[in-house]
Amino acid sequence: MNNSRLKQKIPKAAGEVFRQIILIIISLLFTVVFLALSGYEPFAVINGIIESLTSDIAGTVRWATPLILAGLAFCVSRKAGFFNLGIDGQIYLGAVTGVCVALLIPEGMSHPLGVVLVLIAAMTGGALFALIPAFMRVYLHTDEVVSTLLLNFVGSFFVRFLVNGPMRDPGNNVNLNASPLLARNTWLPRLSFLAPSSANAGIYIAIAMVILIAFVFYQTTLGHEIKITGSNPLLARYSGIQPNRIAILVMMFSGAVAGMIGAIEVFAVQHRLLADFNPSFGFDGIVVALLGNNNPIGIFFSGLFFGALRNGGINMERATDVPSAVTKIVMAIIIIIISIKITLPMIRKKPGAGYKAT
C-alpha cells in the first residue's frame, strides 16, 4: 500500500514542480519584456539570478534564510485555514524579546547557551504576539486578516519607540536609531566557508524547520488534524477535533517561527536592534509560500529562488543602471499568475453546482 501511494505521489509532486518552474519562466519573460520596453538591459534580472546562484552563493544564502522561515510561518497558519498576515509584526516582537534577554546575559556566559537563550526568547515573543489575533479569532470571532495586519504597525512602531528612547545607544553620536552593540556571546555564528558575508547559521535553523514542519504535516496526528481543520472545520468538529485549539496552536507556532527571523536578523546580521531592520520579510514570505504550493519542501526551494532574486537585484543595481526594485515586478507577476490559477476554476464553476436545495 505504501509503495502504491508513493508511486502516486511522485508524479503529482513532479507535476507541481514543473508547473512552478513554468510559472517562474513566464514571470521572468514578462520582466524581460518590461525592461526592454523601459530602455534597460532586458536580461539584467536573469543575469543577476545566475550570478547569485554561481559566484555569489553567500548573498543568496543570507537572503534566502529569512524568506524560507517567513514562508514556513505563513504555511503553518494557512494549512489550518488561517491567514497570518502579521508575520512582520511578530518578527519585530521576536527581535525585541531576544534583545531584552541579551541585555541581561552576563558576558561570562558560554556562547552556545547565550545563543539558545536569545532564540528561545525570540520564539516566545513572536508566539505571544501571534496569540493576540488567535484569541481574537477564537473568542471574539474577529477576522484574523484585519487584526494581524494592524498588529504589524504595532510591532514596527514599538521597535521605533524603543530604539529612539529606552534602548537607544547612549554612546551613539550619529543619527542612528539603534540599540547598543549586543554582547558577542549572543551572536549567531556566520558561515566561515562563505566569509566575508552575512550568510549565517540561520540557514541550518531554516533547514531544520523545513524538516520538522514536513514531518508534523505528513507523519503525525497533529498534522492530520491541522489539514482537516483547514479544509473542512465542520467535519473536523464532528471528527472530535477542536478547531479552536488547533487555531491557537498553529498561530503560536507561526509566530514562533517569525520570531526566529527577528533573532537571526538582529543577532547574526546587524548585531544590534535597528529601527527598520525588517524589509517586509513577512509579506515576501507569503509569495514564497504561494510559489512553493504551501509545501515545506517546495517553500525551501522557493525561498532559495527568491533569495537569489533579491541578491541578484542588489548586485544588478550596483553593476548596472537597473534598480533593484525591478525584482518586485517578478514577485508581483508571480502573485498575479497564481491568483489567476486559483480564481479561474472558481469562475468557471457554475453557481449552485453540487448543491441541492432541500
Task: Please give a structural write-up.
This protein has 358 residues and is mainly alpha-helical. The protein has one domain (48-339): ABC transporter involved in vitamin B12 uptake, BtuC. Helices cover 73% and strands 0% of the residues.
Q: Which regions contain 5 or more consecutive residues with pLDDT less than 50?
A: 353-358
Number of helices: 13
CATH topology-level fold name: ABC transporter involved in vitamin B12 uptake, BtuC
According to DSSP, the number of beta strands is: 0
Level-2 CATH architecture: Orthogonal Bundle
Order of helices and strands: HHHHHHHHHHHHH
- CATH class, please? Mainly Alpha
Summary keywords:
single chain; 358 residues; mainly alpha; ABC transporter involved in vitamin B12 uptake, BtuC; 13 helices; 73% helix; globular
Task: Summarize this entry quickly.
This protein is an all-alpha fold. The protein has 13 helices and no strands.
Note the topology.
Layout lengths: L1 H37 L5 H11 L2 H23 L7 H18 L6 H30 L3 H21 L37 H18 L1 H11 L1 H6 L4 H28 L10 H11 L4 H24 L6 H23 L10
Helix pairs in contact: 1-13, 2-3, 2-12, 3-7, 3-10, 3-11, 3-12, 4-5, 4-6, 4-10, 5-6, 5-10, 7-8, 7-12, 11-12, 11-13
